Amino acid sequence: MGGNEAASLLRIHNLSHSYGAEAVLRDVSCSFPAGSLVAMLGPSGCGKTTLLKICAGLIAPASGSVKIDGVRPYDARQDGIIGYAFQSPTLLPWRTAYRNILLPIELLHKEPSAESRQYAQSMLSLVGLEGKGDTLPGKLSGGMQQRVGLARALVTKPVALFLDEPFGQLDPKTRDKLNEKVRQICQQQNISVLFVTHSVEEAVFVADSVIILSSQPASIVNIININLGRERSHGTKAMRDYARLVRDIDDILEQGHP
Question: Which end of the chain has fewer CB atoms < 10 Å from its terminal CB, N or C?
Fold first, then answer.
């Protein structure tokens, strides 16, 4: 990560942001190529979600720039080439699970094609919600709602996917299965992923690289390459290298940074 910028799908350059007098991000710069899965770790409240929202075009930075496939995040979002899954799914309560998934396509194209509708239906199976397409969000568990949010983020076939702890309400076994599925989908479709997590174990299990942020105003402390192979499964967690990487990252986080 951070190599040939010309080949990078996402580039963050000298990014800084504040909320009033509170400096949140300071001179954040990094880049990664298409198909990379990158986790973001750091102290609670350090600005991880703010950075993710800037990359997704939901917040304009105070200074610096972000480019996704050569364009600004806002433009990328308007073109439907990025997806975002919130920590809270923010589903529309009057729309069924299927129609929530279909929403980004409707916003882009007004009248979805038959192919788009079929693809939206396939997303339900992808996230393990077969038979739940006609169910309203209020009748779904929190974990099921998070899965609908993930399917909605993927339905436009984005080149970049931004995830803010999308599986936080799921049990560890289900979370691992969905993380494996996300990794598989993104490798098959060459989607770049930047995701926020508080779990070092999850970051090492899913990611190709881990960005470690300092406390506020957050800057990049380290970027750790995760060399555990392309395929990840339950057996990955039994590997010595997995345990070593978890320990190394835990040590960096425990040291603390100004």
Answer: C
pLDDT of amino acid 172: 82
Distance CA 204, CA 227 (A): 9
**Could you tell me the residue range of the domain that residue 219 belongs to?**
5-81+158-255
The answer to the question of residue 21 being in a domain is: yes
CA-to-CA dists, residue 243 to 12, 83, 213, angstroms: 30, 31, 21
Query: Using 50, 70 and 90 to split pLDDT, how confident is the model at 50?
Result: very high
CATH number at residue 18: 3.40.50.300
pTM of the prediction?
0.88
Has residue 115 been placed in a domain?
no
pLDDT band at 257 (very low <50, low <70, confident <90, very high): low
For residue 107, tell me if it sits in a domain: no
